[in-house]
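WARN retry 2 of 3 for item q-0093 after timeout on previous attempt; input resubmitted unchanged.
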Amino acid sequence: MFFLFLWNPTIDTEAKKEDIPLNVSVNENCIGCGLCTCTCGSVFLMLDEGVAAAKDEIYPEEEPLVEEAAESCPTHAIIITREV
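OK item q-0093 returned
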C-alpha cells in the first residue's frame, strides 16, 4: 500500500503566535499602584476595591503595551498567557 502526502505551503497547520489570543489577568499580588492603567488604560482599569483588573478582549495592537505593563508591574501581578 502506498500513500502520497503532498505539502501545500499555503496551508499552515500550526498557529502563529500572533494568531493565538492573548489572555491577561491580574492576580492577588496587585497593590493598586495604577502603573498598568497608566501604561495601557485601554486594557487595565482600577476596581472599587483599589486593585487593577484586565478586560477580556485584547486587540493585537494593544499587546506591546500589555507586555510593557506586565514587565513594569512592581509585584508581577499581571499574568499573560496564550491559549490555543
